[in-house]
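May I ask for an example protein's residues together with how it folds?

___
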Amino acid sequence: FLYFIAMPLPHVGDRVGIIPANPGDEIRSGTCLFLGATEFADGIWVGVELDAQWPGKNDGAVQGVKYFECSPGQGVFVRPELVETLASASGGEMALRADIEVLRDEVAKKDA
């Protein structure tokens, strides 16, 4: 299977905004700390430590599996299509190639 994501993927360390489910709500901001597959649901997920003013749901762990480190109640996992990069902390083409390899590996694991 080939998977296509319309928006560019964030990189770990990037400042990101989470697009709200309700159009009238504010965009929540934070830092991308995880990008990849999880054990709690299929597909690719973005783990974000939200800025202090935004409540999250976890500390980077879900169902006993730690995906990233953050303050308790400041972490969330969202689908990539709901995340927009606000400021990049990474280096262009090299980071993009690394993301492609991560996604290829995850797809290969799921298809095996």
Observations:
- The first strand starts at residue 15 and ends at 18.
- The first helix runs from residue 92 to 111.
